[in-house]
Design goal:
With 234 residues, the chain is of the alpha/beta class. It has helices spanning 41-44, 49-52, 58-61, 64-77, 97-101, 154-160, 173-186, 203-218, 226-231; strands spanning 16-18, 25-27, 32-37, 80-86, 112-113, 116-117, 139-143, 165-171, 190-199, 222-224. The chain binds tricarbonodiimidic diamide.
């Protein structure tokens, strides 16, 4: 039963229409949340989890400014704001050994790196990049997995707020962002990903993810440029 949600439809009068792929995305701000995925130092800066996996983090630096612009837009529109962080308890009790032990990273989850213990809640690396830090009253979800619904209170928070539509930004596009969009889509949420506000260590995966979200008539959801969102409903 925890997977159920109500489908009450859009109220009349306050809908905004965004030119999007594969067709227009229509949402009502009062029923929409911005979900900013994992804009953490461990993914965006050198010396963190992303780099320990062998990735070039410079690909994600360019996401910070557009993600901040998206966040500012959502704050101005009065959307519910949700920020997620992927990290684990200091005792690693919520980190499956399969996640910690897979592959041969230079530093494993829980090891001490230049920004503290890798992907551990409370350490500097697990914190938000300063430009994307939550403001008072915004919702923060700490998640142990790639998807933001797994092992978290996100669904109940969204249901309590009457949220039906989600606008996404954050990193990385094909890992935590796409996983969360798929989880949300299966739960009945209408999901829009903002192209400039998300990024991947792999440009080809970024492009492929945007394409696969909108393919087949929006099999996962919609994609749109930031300008299309900001210009809509002006
Ligand atoms: N490795 C990678 O691309 N991403 C992650 O591990 N987590 C998120 O995407 N947040």
């Amino acid at each position: 039963m925890s997977e159920k949600k109500s489908f009450s439809g859009l109220a009349t009068g306050a809908a905004i229409t965004v030119r999007a792929q594969p067709f227009d995305f229509v949402f009502e701000p009062a029923r929409t949340a911005l979900v900013m995925i994992d804009m953490q130092r461990d993914f965006v800066e050198r010396g963190g989890f992303g780099e320990s996996l062998g990735n070039d983090v410079s690909h994600l630096e360019r996401v910070v400014a557009p993600a901040r612009a998206l966040l500012d837009w959502a704050r101005g529109r009065g959307l519910t704001i949700v920020h997620t962080r992927e990290c684990h308890r200091p005792d690693l009790s919520d980190c499956p050994p399969a996640k910690r032990l897979r592959g041969s990273p230079s530093l494993r989850i829980g090891d001490v790196g230049p920004m503290g213990r890798i992907l551990i809640d409370g350490e500097p690396g697990a914190d938000f990049v300063p430009q994307l830090a939550p403001l008072a009253g915004e919702i923060e979800i700490v998640k142990p997995g790639k998807g933001a619904f797994y092992g978290t209170r996100l669904q109940s928070v969204l249901e309590a707020g009457g949220i039906t539509h989600l606008i996404f930004g954050g990193v990385t596009t094909e890992v935590c962002v796409q996983t969360t969009m798929r989880e949300a889509n299966d739960r009945g949420y209408e999901c829009l990903l903002i192209e400039e506000a998300t990024g991947s260590y792999f440009p080809e995966f970024y492009r492929a993810t945007l394409a696969m979200i909108a393919a087949q008539g929006g099999i996962v959801g919609w994609t749109a440029g930031l300008a299309a969102l900001v210009d809509a409903g002006r």
